[in-house]
Amino acid sequence: MSRGGINLIFACVAIALALTAGTFLYMNASQTVVAPAAAGKPQESVLPEDHPPVDAAERLAALEQMSMKDPQNPEHQAQVANLYYDLGQYEKAADFYQRSLRLRPKDPNIETDLAVCFHYLGQDTKALETLDSVLGYSPGFAPAMFNKGVILATAKKDMPGAIVVWESLMRSNPEYARQVGLEQRIRELRGSQ
């Protein structure tokens, strides 16, 4: 076979592949791609990053439907809870966080979010008990320690208790992202005593 014949065959194969790829892209352009969750982290969104904005009610309905279809999946319960939390509906969020925890107990992220819901619902004693539970099985868990300090300082007016918790947080997590702001807050609390 001549060089021209090989080039012609190669060109035909390349065109056929391009047409197949173009047809595939055209046929699947309307399908939504779901981004996989990061390993070991709760899934924040079931939509890809470049997806156009979705109405919260529409997203909530879709998440609740997923939750009903697979009621034994703690991730679905947590996703519904996270959306209710973002909407400021803390009572509903707390209910779904508790559902998630019944399916997967001792999840420090979910239990800490539940405690924050309790705080926003004015149930600060329950919030502190929940955070103490988290710190019992996950000592040094930074979000629980941070939120415990916030509740002690703001709701319980226990400034010395908040300072102790936050200083312990900074010792156990020297690379804590909010360290600079936390040091400033501790200085302010010490100055107000």
Write the layout of secondary structure elements.
Blueprint: H1 3-27, H2 56-69, H3 74-86, H4 90-103, H5 108-120, H6 124-137, H7 142-154, H8 159-172, H9 179-192
What is the N-to-C succession of helices and strands?
HHHHHHHHH
Average pLDDT, rounded to a whole number, is 79
The CATH topology annotation of the domain at 124-193 reads as Serine Threonine Protein Phosphatase 5, Tetratricopeptide repeat
CATH architecture designation of the domain at 124-193: Alpha Horseshoe
How large, in whole angstroms, is the Cα Rg? 25 Å
Tally the helices.
Answer: 9
Proportion of residues in helical segments: 55-70%
Helix-and-strand structural type: mainly alpha
Identify low-pLDDT runs: 16-48
For the sheet with most strands, the description reads:
none
Number of strands: 0
Q: Give the termini distance in whole angstroms.
A: 93 Å
Shape: extended
Portion in strands? under 5%
Question: Care to describe what's here?
Answer:
With 193 residues, the chain is mostly helical. Among the domains are: 54-105, Serine Threonine Protein Phosphatase 5, Tetratricopeptide repeat (Alpha Horseshoe); 124-193, Serine Threonine Protein Phosphatase 5, Tetratricopeptide repeat (Alpha Horseshoe). Helix content is 69%, strand content 0%. The protein has helices at residues 3-27, 56-69, 74-86, 90-103, 108-120, 124-137, 142-154, 159-172, 179-192. α2 (56-69) runs antiparallel to α3, α4 packs antiparallel against α5 (108-120) and α7 runs antiparallel to α8 (159-172).
